Amino acid sequence: MKLQYVLVLFLANLGFAAQWDIDGAHASARFKIRHMTVSNVSGEITGMTGIFKVDDKDSSKMSLEGTLDMSTLNTNNTDRDNHLKAPDFFDVNKFPKAAFKTKSITKGEGDKITLVGDLTMRGITKGVSIEGELTPVLKDPFGKLRRGLSGTTKIHRKDFGITWNKILDNGGLALGETVEITLEIELTQPGKDKKG
């Protein structure tokens, strides 16, 4: 085994939190919201950065801090994306980043993990809980150590000052209030890259 891989396992066995970087090229937050009461609209936000300190023996020593670049928001519709980035919704020019910082992390059975912390959007901070999985360490073909973090949560958009809506002819609302969020994140530690 490569020295870096051995070191990670050694530190984990000693109970030290190892630092993992979010790989922004392989990380995103996907969201879904009810639209016109008949279907869902989904999109993705990338530009993710952050650090996850992992201790596989003692979750009380674990922590995660990360940010999202809100300008990367994409629903595959330019007009809708421009509206979502405008003051009616995320007001990206004024609030270019969303941030999450854990208060506690709890490991469950197998790869299960619960992250409780503060989500900040549009300058408003609210507590959220993320239920997910943290995969074991592996070494990729280029010598880097990797592991994955996935998770889901739900938020109420009005909690973050996103109140825009329209009443439909049938009396329903154009947009739902609850947003479902799915996180898919690869974490890396530096290693010898065969590509140089």
Would you kindly provide a written description of the structure presented here, covering whatever features stand out?
The protein is mainly beta. About 10% of the residues lie in helices and about 50% in strands. The chain is built from two helices and ten strands. It starts with a helix and ends in a 7-residue tail after the last strand.
**Which of globular, elongated, flat, extended, rod-shaped describes the shape?**
globular
- What letter string, H or E per element, gives the SSE order? HEEEEHEEEEEE
**Would you state the CATH class?**
Mainly Beta
The CATH superfamily title: Lipid/polyisoprenoid-binding, YceI-like
Rg over alpha carbons: 19 Å
Mean pLDDT: 85
| CATH fold node name | Lipocalin
Stretches where pLDDT falls below 50 for ≥5 residues? Answer: 192-196
What fraction of the residues are assigned to beta strands by DSSP?
over 45%
Give the CA-CA distance, first to last residue: 19 Å
From the structure above, extract its key features.
196 residues, mainly beta, single chain, 8-stranded antiparallel β-barrel, Lipocalin, 2 helices, disordered C terminus, 51% strand, globular
Could you outline the blueprint of secondary structure elements for this entry?
Layout: H1 3-14, E1 18-35, E2 39-45, E3 49-54, E4 63-69, H2 78-85, E5 97-107, E6 112-121, E7 124-134, E8 138-139, E9 145-156, E10 175-189
Antiparallel strand pairs: 1-2, 1-3, 1-10, 3-4, 4-5, 5-6, 6-7, 7-9, 8-9, 9-10
Compact overview of the structure:
With 196 residues, the chain is mainly beta. 10% of the residues lie in helices and 51% in strands.
